[in-house]
Design goal:
The chain is an all-alpha fold. The chain has helices spanning about 10-25, 30-50, 55-85, 90-120.
Length: about 120
């Protein structure tokens, strides 16, 4: 696998993680909910970093599936925070647009890894 930092999806996920962390820094809300949002958004790029060390195609596919799951969880927490008026409409829309792009890139990367696996069979 290539250096995970060279993946465009990693760059996008890292930027989203940083943006969400900075936005949520001074927000007053349940510690648990804030912790869950920050954990899920940062887990996307953390799992991409772990994937960079894996040689096995099935293991890489599993890590990408985990990344997609973390993106889905992040969407839930962003929606909840928006519905509770912790995240205003404009920021929610910006975060969601980034998340949708990231999830699309993750799905394409997973498909690419699967095709590489099919070629080796």
């Amino acid at each position: 696998m290539q250096n995970f930092k060279n993946l465009r999806v990693y760059e996008e996920a890292f930027r989203l993680s940083k943006d969400v962390f900075e936005f949520m820094e001074d927000k007053k809300m349940s510690f648990r909910a804030k912790e869950q949002l920050l954990a899920s958004v940062s887990s996307i790029c953390a799992n991409l970093a772990e994937m960079g060390a894996l040689d096995s195609i099935p293991a890489q596919k599993q890590k990408l599936t985990t990344c997609i799951g973390e993106a889905n969880e992040t969407e839930y927490w962003l929606d909840l925070c928006h519905s509770l008026k912790i995240i205003p409409q404009r920021e929610h829309l910006n975060f969601m647009n980034s998340l949708v792009r990231i999830r699309s890139m993750l799905c394409k990367l997973k498909l690419s890894v699967e095709k590489r696996g099919d070629m080796k069979s």
